[in-house]
Amino acid sequence: MNRQPIPVRTGHGAIGRRGSGTGLLALVLGALLLLVTACGGGADKTSRTDNRQPAAGQADTRASRAVVTVAPKNGAKDVATSGALKITADKGKLSQVEVTDSKGNEIDGRITPDGAAWEPSHHLAASTTYKVHALAKDAEGRVSAQDTTFTTLVPKNTFIGEFLPEDGSTVGVGMPVSFRFTRGITHPDAVERAIKVTAEPSVPVEGHWFGNDRLDFRPEKYWAAGTKVTVKVNLDGVEGRPGVYGKQSRTVKFTVGRSQVSTVDAKAHTMKVVRDGKLVRTIPITAGAPATTTYNGQMVISEKLKVTRMNGATVGFGGEYDIKDVPHAMRLSNSGTFIHGNYWASSGTFGSANVSHGCVGLRDRRGAGDSGTPAAWFWNSSLIGDVVVVTNSQDKQIAPDNGLNGWNMSWAEWTK
């Protein structure tokens, strides 16, 4: 049987629909290609924008390149009081640094001229917690911050400085500021830097060490009358010797009163009292006998005693004397030199002979009850820190560290 072939339909038939599907696929693929291209192009633009300065009026939200580093690390304990605190900036400059103790007191310091580091002006206190707040800016002015805390060491061994004059006192023009330390100091520069003595009106004041346990401060010449002196003691945390730290932090103020300088002439047996540049009295005296002469030199009154006991055995004279009621006594040296009242010598001795064991004697009455005697007048007219200068004695000049008598050193010797 002969079969006729089946005709294939064209036009809107099957072949036409297949052609329509191909066109739709092409449209979808084209749209996807455009989308991918658009996303790729957008990503490139965003990356370039991140590396540029923000447009005018827009905030710069990029992170600062500056890096602040604080040593010791945050939370550190037993930190050394000197040399351990270091604050630095990398890829920028420090703009602000605050270091405060637990009481809110800010530690003095300065940012170096290049902005790379901050340096404390002095040591830190011991047994103290400190907070650090530091800011740095990069080249674009963006700020980076660092906040840390740390605690300094607790000393096992400490020292203090016992000092003169007393806070609030009024003293004579020769009064130095004198510290006696309870432990021998092997780091004298660190200790001296921790004590600042200033005067009003201003005058240079320098320190001088006598041995390893005494430090005195004075100006080149006697203080001017009326000078106000401030002593700032910041020894807390200072390592005075290996493992031994200071524990004082205080401010002391005193005032220099009127000027009084009295000059003893051992040969003429007189003392001239000059107050504020004027001679107010000439007093007959007796100085050290030929075998026990009085030191020459500038001596400062360091102690006033209305009545005291003087025993020769305490100053190397054995049992030569023991006077239990010496009136109106004022100390001039650590070795036992005094200017004092004398009631046991005849009145004719004063102004004519030297009979003492090295002291300067003025006529007086027993018991220090007579205000009309020369000794009573001078005692009542004198201040701790007044100067008594002894001349024309057959003895050597007193040692500068024998009492408060550093004035017997030249300024060049004092400051070297």
Automatic annotation (TrEMBL):
<keyword id="KW-0449">Lipoprotein</keyword>
<protein>
    <submittedName>
        <fullName>Lipoprotein-anchoring transpeptidase ErfK/SrfK</fullName>
    </submittedName>
</protein>
<keyword id="KW-0133">Cell shape</keyword>
<keyword id="KW-1003">Cell membrane</keyword>
<dbReference type="InterPro" id="IPR038063">
    <property type="entry name" value="Transpep_catalytic_dom"/>
</dbReference>
<dbReference type="GO" id="GO:0018104">
    <property type="term" value="P:peptidoglycan-protein cross-linking"/>
</dbReference>
<feature type="active site" description="Nucleophile">
    <location>
        <position position="359"/>
    </location>
</feature>
<dbReference type="Pfam" id="PF17964">
    <property type="entry name" value="Big_10"/>
</dbReference>
<keyword id="KW-0564">Palmitate</keyword>
<dbReference type="GO" id="GO:0008360">
    <property type="term" value="P:regulation of cell shape"/>
</dbReference>
<dbReference type="InterPro" id="IPR005490">
    <property type="entry name" value="LD_TPept_cat_dom"/>
</dbReference>
<keyword id="KW-0732">Signal</keyword>
<keyword id="KW-0012">Acyltransferase</keyword>
<comment type="pathway">
    <text>Cell wall biogenesis; peptidoglycan biosynthesis.</text>
</comment>
<dbReference type="InterPro" id="IPR041280">
    <property type="entry name" value="Big_10"/>
</dbReference>
<dbReference type="InterPro" id="IPR050979">
    <property type="entry name" value="LD-transpeptidase"/>
</dbReference>
<comment type="pathway">
    <text>Glycan biosynthesis.</text>
</comment>
<dbReference type="GO" id="GO:0071972">
    <property type="term" value="F:peptidoglycan L,D-transpeptidase activity"/>
</dbReference>
<dbReference type="Pfam" id="PF03734">
    <property type="entry name" value="YkuD"/>
</dbReference>
<keyword id="KW-0961">Cell wall biogenesis/degradation</keyword>
<feature type="active site" description="Proton donor/acceptor">
    <location>
        <position position="340"/>
    </location>
</feature>
<dbReference type="GO" id="GO:0005576">
    <property type="term" value="C:extracellular region"/>
</dbReference>
<feature type="region of interest" description="Disordered">
    <location>
        <begin position="43"/>
        <end position="63"/>
    </location>
</feature>
<keyword id="KW-0472">Membrane</keyword>
<dbReference type="GO" id="GO:0071555">
    <property type="term" value="P:cell wall organization"/>
</dbReference>
<keyword id="KW-0808">Transferase</keyword>
<feature type="domain" description="L,D-TPase catalytic">
    <location>
        <begin position="260"/>
        <end position="391"/>
    </location>
</feature>
<keyword id="KW-0573">Peptidoglycan synthesis</keyword>
<dbReference type="GO" id="GO:0016746">
    <property type="term" value="F:acyltransferase activity"/>
</dbReference>
